[in-house]
Design goal:
The chain has 254 residues and is α/β, with parallel strands linked by helices. Helix content is 36%, strand content 15%. A 7-stranded mixed beta sheet has the order 3-2-1-4-6-5-7.
């Protein structure tokens, strides 16, 4: 009897990523792995730079590719949640529409779940293949060098704050590569709609006793001038608010 391969739902939120989304989608679609099947779910949030036209053209006559076109931007978290709603896979993998992360790391981040070791995996940018830690993951050039330093230090501070508050020792809870089972996701009711959704996922999974396995991945950072959308102070404060709220609120209501 031929054993059916697991289906992985790859959720790709897209908003104003015309410079990278076409190449990213090509790489994801062409990625092959005999250990699993994949479905690609693109959620485009009505960008103004031509992203919508690119993704609409991409999905034409493609197998196992679904497209959600939102009427207006509602945040990354909202887009991911909408994608998960129509997903059919038992495993969810979040993929940003830029080129900071390598699709060649898919097998790395999926293997611990396939092996039954965990229901939740983080692809850590702070670990190398020898699992040595590096805090300097953003390497900008020119006038943005000081900004890269501040962002690297801020990440370490907020990660330390989270680890102390939740009693864990994760190296990269803010990584994009969050992979988890659909069953685990049904145990939470996400409330956040923006970038803080990344933190809400981690906080709630950990509160429910699901400590992720971290695996090292490759990472090529991009700067604000290259399209990075996170705003240091606004998003930083929303992260802290989400971390604190999820830690101390009634577990039955998260």
């Amino acid at each position: 009897m031929i054993q059916k391969k697991p289906l992985v739902s790859i959720i790709i939120p897209v908003f104003n990523e015309a410079k990278t989304v076409g190449e990213l989608l090509r790489r994801v679609y062409q990625y092959k792995n005999n250990k699993f099947d994949k479905e690609i779910i693109i959620v485009e949030s009505r960008g103004t730079d031509g992203s919508r036209e690119i993704v609409k053209e991409f999905v034409r006559k493609k197998h196992n590719v679904k497209l959600i076109l939102e009427d207006k931007p509602k945040g990354k978290g909202h887009a991911v949640q909408e994608g998960i709603k129509i997903s059919k896979g038992k495993i969810i993998l979040i993929q940003d529409a830029d080129l900071e992360y390598s699709v060649n790391d898919y097998e790395k981040v999926l293997t611990p779940i396939f092996a039954g070791k965990t229901s939740f995996v983080l692809g850590s940018r702070h670990l190398n293949d020898q699992h040595s830690f590096s805090w300097r993951i953003r390497k900008f050039t020119g006038l943005e060098i000081p900004y890269a330093y501040v962002m690297n230090m801020a990440a370490i501070l907020i990660h330390t704050f989270f680890n102390k508050l939740y009693g864990v020792s994760l190296t990269d809870p803010t990584t994009m590569y969050k992979v988890f089972t659909k069953e685990l996701y049904t145990n939470i009711a996400p409330k956040t709609k923006g970038f803080d959704f990344d933190w809400e996922l981690v906080c709630k999974f950990v509160r429910l006793g699901n400590i992720p396995i971290e695996v090292p991945i490759k990472y090529e950072s991009r700067s604000p001038s290259q399209g990075k959308k996170i705003v240091f102070f606004k998003d930083g404060f929303s992260y802290i608010k989400t971390i604190i709220k999820c830690r101390f609120m009634d577990i039955s209501k998260i």
